[in-house]
Amino acid sequence: MAAQRLPNEVPTPAGDGLRIAEATSSKPQPNGLQVIFVLEQASLELGKVGKTYQLLNSDEHANFLRRHKKDPADYRPDILHQELLAILDSPLNKAGHIERIYVHTKSNVLLSIHPQVRLPRTFKRFCGLMLQLLQKLSIRATNGSEKLLKVIKQPVTKYFPPNARRVGFSVSAPDVSDLRTWSENLDKDRAVVFVVGAMAHGKIDVSWTDELISISNYPLSGACCIGRICNALEHKLEIL
């Protein structure tokens, strides 16, 4: 007997599904701080392995990458997966304060991700979903016409609200800031854009940030950095 698809499920190439969160569970709060995340330099590159196209990653395709004189350490889509889950799972998002997530890849592709999307929890299913997105350029919910994930035109800055505060994060920033103290100065009526690296090593290199800050004396993973950002804003907004 064929498997029956759930009502809000989007099929992926491997037969896995993408379920969409209830719209009412993350309804934006009026007059509340709105947050945009930009995940920079994400590794989402397709390669023809054998007879099929696959999302390249260092675990499964190390030999393939070396044969093509590429460093497997640069192919880490799992970092993006971890960062997206950290954002989508946060109470900040569930309270409706995440306006949009943008992903800029190393291949110079820009993706828009709706904050109500429910991504696959396992990495293999996530790879299948990203493969489908890069090939079809958009993914819709089965219960509506809205595109929950899509490839969009650049630059990313044209999607920012007017007067949005643009903040980058780097361990190389000159001063270390306590994020809870720093966030107390945020204007709740002014949107804020956070840009976080989604690569294995290196630093973000964008020209449109208003400020660059460091939030720890130690290098942090992208997911850990996002967790600190969300936690500080949840404290500011009294979200439990």
Helices and strands in order:
Elements lengths: L8 E3 L5 E3 L15 E8 L3 E4 L2 E4 L6 H6 L9 H12 L2 H4 L3 E8 L4 E4 L9 H14 L1 E3 L6 E6 L12 E5 L9 H5 L8 E6 L13 E3 L8 H16 L3
Parallel strand pairs: 3-6, 3-11, 10-11, 10-12
Antiparallel strand pairs: 1-2, 4-5, 6-7, 7-9, 8-9
Helix content: 10-25%
Low-confidence parts? 1-17, 19-26
Question: What does the overall shape look like?
Answer: globular
Instruction: Tell me the distance between the termini.
Output: 44 Å
SSE series: EEEEEHHHEEHEEEHEEH
Q: Biggest sheet, in brief?
A: 8 strands, mixed
Strand order of the largest sheet: 8-9-7-6-3-11-10-12
Oligomer: single chain
Number of extended strands: 12
Cα-based radius of gyration, to the nearest Å? 18 Å
Describe this structure in words.
Helix content is 24%, strand content 24%. With 240 residues, it is an alpha/beta fold. Helix 2 packs parallel to helix 6 (222-237). The protein is globular and about 55 Å long. The N and C termini lie far apart (44 Å). The model is unreliable at 1-17 and 19-26 (pLDDT under 50).
Short synopsis of the structure:
With about 240 residues, the chain is of the alpha/beta class. It contains 6 helices and 12 strands.
